[in-house]
Amino acid sequence: MKIPSNVGPKIVLGNKGLGLLALSATLGSISSSGGQNADDIALSSSLQFQVILFFSSLYLVAFAQGGHKPCVQAFGADQFDTQDPEECKAKTSFFNWWYFGMCAGTLTTLSILNYIQDNLSWVLGFAIPGIVMAVGLVVFLLGTMTYRYSVKGDEESPIVTIGRVFILAVRNRKTSYSAIAAEEEARGILATESSKQFKFLNKALLAPDGSKEQGEVCSIREVEEAKAVIRLAPIWATSLIYAIAFAQSSTFFTKQGATMDRSTAMMGFEIPAASLQSFISLSVVLFIPIYDRIFVPLARALTGKQAGITLLQRIGSGMVISTISLVIAAVVEMRRLKIAEEYGLLDKPNVMVPMSVWWLVPQYALYGLADVFTMVGLQEFFYDQMPNELRSVGLALYLSIFGVGSFLSSFLISAIENLTSGDGRDSWFANNLNRAHLDYFFLLLAVLSAVGLTLYVCCTKYYIYARWGRTF
């Protein structure tokens, strides 16, 4: 049986990590029930081992996800035959339904596993995902006889090939552009926008020092692949501001909700503040079918494009929606602060502000809608525009946007905290949220998002789609 070597081991590692998390929770239960007569030294050693096991399990799960996510997405998209018109059309929906499944799983986790972990058992809360992943691994392996595999010969690594393009271009840096033009004419290269862009790399078409050895020059395709990788850099950079805004939905949005009236029509039931994030997943689950089954066919009829709109248009649309969501979040926070002041709660952070948590639903819902456009669009864009052999690397680059964005978000918050907390003043992020100014922060992010969107649009005007990508 042939097992996909780039996917299967990552699933196994993730499953082991979840199993170890369940084991660490079990050890915690045993330690906590040791009673007063337990030997202090033995108990301390047991707790130390439990902490080491717990963090090792978390790192193992993170390591598995880092390898699993980009590989399994690329592997799934590679199952479609781009030469078949019907399969090529179906491939445009793959990333939509992939993200639908991811968010449906997240929604289930937030609504069920959170309750199990808080009210029943942490051991059970970790064990259930481990069991589900084990079942998923079995189902995945059962399909190994039907998967399509990319058969590779003894070709050179694409990373090495692209690196050689840059090295040769640097070595030939003194070569005149007239010599490059002569070489392009000899090879029959047409004067297209792609050949004119990053023309410096065209110097890799020539052998260094006038050598005629063909093994020392790069092919036209190799140069085009190197250019395609460079073109992704501005899109990656201008998407970071979206990632910074995205990080707030699981932090400050939740902190807002924790201060508000979270009661429901069900007597005695309060919505947990952390579960408010489920509105994003719910929004995605609701909007993706609408996007895929209604929006795309209507847009296709108007534009004639297979996917309705281009990938860059899709990403930009989500950035617009994200900016609107931040403005709404700022307005809602202004209203919350005003109500807190009216009821004399500015110095009573532990008292609930008499404002329904349902006021937060629009900003959560818009974040979900923005994800349908930008998040899914970025996934497909970085898969589609990378050379075939580097598509899993492209998806890793997509994931790095949100990793780097989270770090930048932390840096921005720290900088604002230092700037606004001097002279005895409450900072924008004071522990007493009624004295803080999250509204200012959300407005700042909205302005930064607008600036980022403007830069993004400027970059898209000069972007040239890779010729091996889908038809636009």
From TrEMBL:
Residue ranges of the TM segments: 47-64, 97-116, 122-142, 229-251, 271-291, 311-332, 395-416, 440-464
Annotated compartments: Membrane
Alphabetized GO MF terms: transmembrane transporter activity
Keywords: Membrane, Transmembrane, Transmembrane helix
Domain of life: Eukaryota
GO terms under cellular component: membrane
Membrane topology: Multi-pass membrane protein
Family, as annotated: Belongs to the major facilitator superfamily. Proton-dependent oligopeptide transporter (POT/PTR) (TC 2.A.17) family.
The name this protein goes by in its record: Major facilitator superfamily (MFS) profile domain-containing protein
Organism from which the protein derives: Gossypium raimondii (Peruvian cotton)
